[in-house]
Design the sequence.
């Protein structure tokens, strides 16, 4: 396989983008990434999007985006894997360059969730439609079931869950692209409106519009660029049962664990080599399970580790320096690509007020459903 | 819930019918064509037991449109006495009555309706015992 570099990144602000359409936001992010890379052309394109058909009634968005970006007739396809559609699109783009089929590939993620759809229904389609959703379960409900079990089995406290949201909002407050760039307190999180007990609205990522894009290139195509190079050194993906109830242990996200192990193996590193990470904090409990299942901390220790500040910007391993899905926003199909944008900006030293000191290796973990799919990428500054 | 989809799942939703792997004994609910434990394709029909216990639970406060009039309602993962886990509503009790390990019984109830004039969708729920 050939080496693959990220040579350009771009994203829109995340939020309620009432005056912009699905195609507008994708093109805005794509042009920013193309401009950042300084490339004249792209060879092909992958667009991660969870369910534009349910959110805005538009399918076939690979072709739509190639058309509106003015790059047709290049190959372009939409990639779907629920909330890890963006991460999976990145994986396909990575393999296309690694395989030698293309020199320069654009990978994007986009979602428009605020145009009037039944968002709770649309998101629930990523769960088992006949045996979970039919019974009335929601996504917050599934993560609440995980949270309750985690609290009973490992002693994770309500306050520790809240500490995830507090930390991510603190980081997001430093991110100009964040949907909610403001801080919250432990008390505010715990006393906010309940969505699915014990999770409140401030344990949950918001409903967002947004797009993010990266430009991937081979070593030849990346040569001569006047900016720090970021190399993708590992990519791992995995799946698990679609229904949460079918898992042996509902507090372990096996797909996260396995996708992490595969990415570490490809990169030839250990979890302790990772300097910082963007992880899929769709709900506060998710971040706690993920940092355990990626091996950053022992199983059951995610809550105390977070509460003690070890995942803060100045902690042992900063997690979600961007503000995460919680504060930055979660336009579902765009999230995985936006994570890559943050990791690249950190590795280039371009993360502004939220810049961490001297990062060398960063990781991005993106998850679909209640953990039925997961994809992990590892990036290194060169 | 479109009618063909609903009708197809009636054996599971009405009668808790499952598939038991003839090779390794694992019970799959709903029935599958391939055993997730051993890969065998040889099954016999069986049923979930009527009783089980709560593995985890929550109370849904924000629901999809089909369930919006029911909030708040309890949802749990319940493990039947023959070891099969399902997601189900737990009714005839208050949220504070629930706890992990609590015994429940599966009951036959209305789950939702297809609009005002469409089919009524039935299925299983659980009640504490």
Sequence:
């Amino acid at each position: 396989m050939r080496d693959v570099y990220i040579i350009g990144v771009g994203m829109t602000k995340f939020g309620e983008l009432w005056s912009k359409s699905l195609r507008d936001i994708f093109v805005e992010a794509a042009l920013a990434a193309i401009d950042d890379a300084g490339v004249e052309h792209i060879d092909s394109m992958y667009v991660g999007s969870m369910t534009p058909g349910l959110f805005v009634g538009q399918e076939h968005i690979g072709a739509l985006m190639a058309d509106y970006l003015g790059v047709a007739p290049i190959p372009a396809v939409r990639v779907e894997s629920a909330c890890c559609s963006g991460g999976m699109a990145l994986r396909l783009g990575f393999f296309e360059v690694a395989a030698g089929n293309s020199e320069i590939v654009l990978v994007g993620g986009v979602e428009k969730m605020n145009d009037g759809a039944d968002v709770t229904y649309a998101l629930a389609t990523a769960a088992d439609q006949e045996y979970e959703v039919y019974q009335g379960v929601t996504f917050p409900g599934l993560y609440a079931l995980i949270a309750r079990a985690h609290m009973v089995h490992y002693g994770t406290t309500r306050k520790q869950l809240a500490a995830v949201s507090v930390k991510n909002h603190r980081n997001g407050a430093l991110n100009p692209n964040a949907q909610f760039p403001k801080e919250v307190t432990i008390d505010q999180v715990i006393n906010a409106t309940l969505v699915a007990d014990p999770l409140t609205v401030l344990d949950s990522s918001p409903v967002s519009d947004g797009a993010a894009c990266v430009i991937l290139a081979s070593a030849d195509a990346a040569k001569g660029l006047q900016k720090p190079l970021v190399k993708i050194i590992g990519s791992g993906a995995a799946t698990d049962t679609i229904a949460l109830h079918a898992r042996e242990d509902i507090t372990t996200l096996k797909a996260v664990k396995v996708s992490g192990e595969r990415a570490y193996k490809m990169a030839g590193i250990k979890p302790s080599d990772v300097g910082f990470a963007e992880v899929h904090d769709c709900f506060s409990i998710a971040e706690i399970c993920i940092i355990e299942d990626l091996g950053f901390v022992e199983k059951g220790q995610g809550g105390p580790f977070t509460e003690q500040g070890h995942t803060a910007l100045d902690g042992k391993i900063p997690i979600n320096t961007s503000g995460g899905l919680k504060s930055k926003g979660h336009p579902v199909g765009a999230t995985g690509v936006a994570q890559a944008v943050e990791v690249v900006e950190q590795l280039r030293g371009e993360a502004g007020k939220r810049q961490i000191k001297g990062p060398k290796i960063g990781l991005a973990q993106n998850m679909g459903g209640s953990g039925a799919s997961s994809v992990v990428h590892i990036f290194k500054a060169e | 819930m479109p009618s063909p989809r609903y009708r197809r799942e009636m054996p599971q939703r009405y009668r808790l019918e499952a598939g038991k792997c003839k090779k390794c004994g694992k019970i799959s609910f709903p029935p599958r064509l391939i055993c997730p434990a051993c890969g065998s394709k040889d099954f016999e029909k069986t049923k979930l037991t009527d009783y089980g216990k709560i593995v985890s639970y929550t109370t849904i406060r924000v629901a999809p449109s089909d369930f919006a009039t029911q909030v708040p309602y309890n949802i749990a993962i319940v493990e039947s006495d023959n070891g099969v886990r399902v997601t189900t509503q737990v009714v005839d009790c208050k949220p504070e009555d629930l706890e992990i390990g609590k015994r429940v019984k599966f009951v036959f109830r209305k789950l939702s309706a297809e609009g005002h004039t469409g089919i009524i969708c039935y299925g299983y729920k659980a009640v504490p015992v």
